[in-house]
Design a protein that fits this description.
By secondary structure, this protein is of the alpha/beta class. Helices cover about 50% and strands about 15% of the residues. The chain binds 1,4-dihydronicotinamide adenine dinucleotide and 6-O-phosphono-beta-D-fructofuranose (F6P). Belongs to the mannitol dehydrogenase family.
Length: about 375
């Protein structure tokens, strides 16, 4: 049986990427630090993926097992020897932490065989696989680096499926939305995986996804949080916020249409389809999940700041994006480590310095001025 190694046995790992591999005839070895999940995968050897619909259709996912990358390093290295694919869905901030072990696995592999291995990071981040590759290279000697060509391939990808936090503690089963899209950038002919779409240029796909699905989601999450809402669908039922989301997506849309020559009517359809996905009540998707990690989400290349700076450069409107950035700056959820760190930074150094440090926005840039203007207005509104 073909084999694949997937780092991150969480929501996207089990509910999306691992499930597609299993359905394509692969044995999936999940690598994670969550001991309970690893034990259950090894004991139960399967789990159910349940669709967030009124019928709640389920699919059984077979041929799965687990390894703990903290306590079973040798076994992970061995699994990498046998795999055709190595994927991750672990969170962008975790990629540097798993890179040393992947590097060990790759070193052993290229010194003992010529079979091709395809590495794909499935994270909400532009160029996540390139970033992972650079971390891996830091842990390889020149001789090993020289052997990667033609053996180890690194492909960027875009992943789109809403998988909320699961409220079935103790079960491996995962509730997912029906829709999914996994786009992988390569011009190589690679072993087929059901549901994987191959493209030669990922940029329009990942930007369209990140600056529509993720920007829209972030606006709902941050404004929902500020107005005391619990879930995404509940927030979108608030007409004022729904209008604000539309206005923000018009701004990212204008940039995407200009940048990639998208058809305006098609793009409007794409936006509307996404808004329908967000309204799914069966997902019960918490605003605090979608808002998680505000420091990462306020990064210069991420879903809020990049479209704002690109729109500004292109002479397009960005005031609604500035409002979204301002709302993210006000996210003070006390169970989110990044939110707490962000609030401490704002308290100590002020918003302008935080925008400079985290978002790489110049002090007196037009975008910075507009964000501060929106931040002050929002602060008054939520008082
Ligand atoms: N949940 C969703 O709807 C979507 C998530 N994504 C992306 O997928 C990635 C994963 O997200 P989720 O699955 O939602 O998160 P999650 O929190 O459900 O899963 C992450 C998994 O990584 C594991 N992990 C954390 N640190 C680790 C380490 N050092 N070594 C090994 N495993 C470690 C955790 O134990 C957890 O099982 C993120 O980059 C996210 O942006 C992308 C599209 C959709
Ligand atoms: O996973 P992140 O990057 O923290 O952001 C949450 C976002 O990811 C998703 O879970 C999947 O795209 C979206 O639901 C949401 O926009």
């Amino acid at each position: 049986m073909k084999k694949t190694v997937h780092f991150g046995a969480g929501n996207i790992g089990r509910g999306f990427i691992g499930a597609l591999f299993s359905q394509s005839g692969y044995h999936v070895t999940f690598v994670d630090i969550a001991e309970q999940i690893i034990n259950q995968l090894n004991e139960e050897k399967s789990y159910q993926v349940k669709l967030a619909t009124d019928k709640g259709e389920t699919t059984k996912i077979n041929n799965v097992s687990g390894l703990n990358n903290m306590t079973q390093e040798n076994e992970v290295v061995e699994a990498i020897q046998q795999a055709t694919y190595l994927t991750t869905a672990i969170g962008p901030n975790i990629l540097p932490r798993i890179a040393p072990l992947i590097a060990r696995g790759l070193k052993e592999r290229v010194n003992s065989q010529n079979e091709k291995l395809y590495v794909i990071a499935c994270e909400n981040q532009i160029g996540a696989t390139d970033i992972l590759r650079n971390h891996i290279l830091e842990h390889l000697d020149d001789e090993t680096k020289g052997k990667l060509d033609g053996r180890i391939y690194f492909f960027n990808s875009a992943v789109d499926r809403i998988v909320p936090i699961q409220d079935n503690k103790g079960s491996l089963d995962v509730l997912v939305e029906t829709y999914y899209e996994w786009v992988v950038e390569t011009s190589e002919i690679i072993p087929e995986v059901q549901g994987m779409k191959i493209v030669e240029d990922l940029a329009p796909y990942i930007e369209r996804k990140l600056f529509t699905v993720n920007t829209g989601h972030a606006v709902i999450a941050y404004l929902g949080y500020l107005s005391g809402k619990s879930t995404i669908d509940q927030t979108l039922a608030d007409e004022k916020i729904a209008k604000q989301v539309q206005e923000t997506l018009k701004e990212t849309g204008a940039y995407l249409i200009k940048q990639y020559g998208l058809d305006e009517a098609e793009h409007t359809k794409y936006i509307n389809k996404i808004l329908e996905r967000f309204k799914n009540p069966y997902l019960n998707d918490a605003v605090t999940r979608v808002a998680r990690g505000p420091i990462r989400k306020l990064g210069p290349e991420d879903r809020l700041v990049r479209p704002a700076t690109e729109a500004q450069k292109a002479g397009l409107s960005y005031s609604n994006l500035a409002k979204a950035i301002a709302a993210a700056l006000l996210f003070d959820f006390n169970e989110d480590e990044e939110a707490q760190k962000l609030q401490a930074m704002i308290k100590e150094n002020g918003v302008m310095n935080v925008l400079k440090e985290i978002s790489k926005l110049e002090e007196n840039s037009e975008v910075t001025k507009e964000v501060i203007n929106q931040y002050e207005k929002l602060q008054q509104e939520v008082k």
